[in-house]
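Session log. Operator J.P. requested a structure for one protein chain; no other inputs attached. Running the standard single-chain path with token output.
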Amino acid sequence: MSKDLRNFDLNLLVVFHALSEEAHLTRTAERLHLSQPAVSNALSRLRDLFEDELFVRAPKGMRPTPKAKSLTQPIQEALNLIQSQLTPVDTFCSETAKNCFTISVNEYAELIDLPDFIRMLRASAPNVSLDIYPESNSTNIELIRSGEIDIAIDYLPITGKELVKELFYEERLVVIASNVHPILRDKLSTGLYTSLPYVAVRPRDHRGSHTQIILGKKSLKRNITMTVTNMLAIPQIVSKTDMLSIVPKRLAEYFQSFLPIAIHALPFDLDRVPIYMYYHQDKVNNQAHKWFRQQLLTISNL
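Structure written below.
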């Protein structure tokens, strides 16, 4: 490619990068805050520059040509290098910082994890504040992209090429029931588990609860008698009925300290539930965000 770089517009590489991730003209225009004709014009200039179609129409958007695929990584690396030089070195001092961090978590994490976490934050960063969003749903991906949510913590996968996925911790599950259950006394068998009335959490985003997702691999049916919207209601319900349920071990231990419930080991082998932390790749080297991620990771050790 014998082109004069003096006349080259670097913004074309930004459009190329966005097209390679979005594979759609309209979404690329929205992402870059440009009009669709402007993106089309930039694509035309890119085609002239590289002497290739680069992106061709497909049933659901745009499909990269082999040439475009070969250019994707080098252009990404070039943009990262340029951005690193243009971005001033940021510093972060937790003692004086006044940042407000937004995270999305479920009600269980709010009850079990956040009280100790905020106590720790108050000691190390007294002027830092937290804004808690409900656990991730289909719209929170857009909030992460826009920067309204710094970090999403979830057991359900959040998909997006520009997101970083990091293992947060692994949750152990147990069965809880009343400690004066009329039938369940000692060791819980698989037969009792599948036959006794069960209280479940309503699936979120039509994708299933953590228990449903894992049990689906085992083809175990439960005698679901009641479905609730909030996991925190389950210990109260099982303490006063003949129902049982599966909940995170730390939640069971918390409620056992003041409710008449018994904790039983699962009657079958079950993998721990991986909980992930999701954030935008633009935040990877942000010093304030990096510090906050490190603080959050201490939750798994609390």
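Operator note: The first helix runs from residue 11 to 22.
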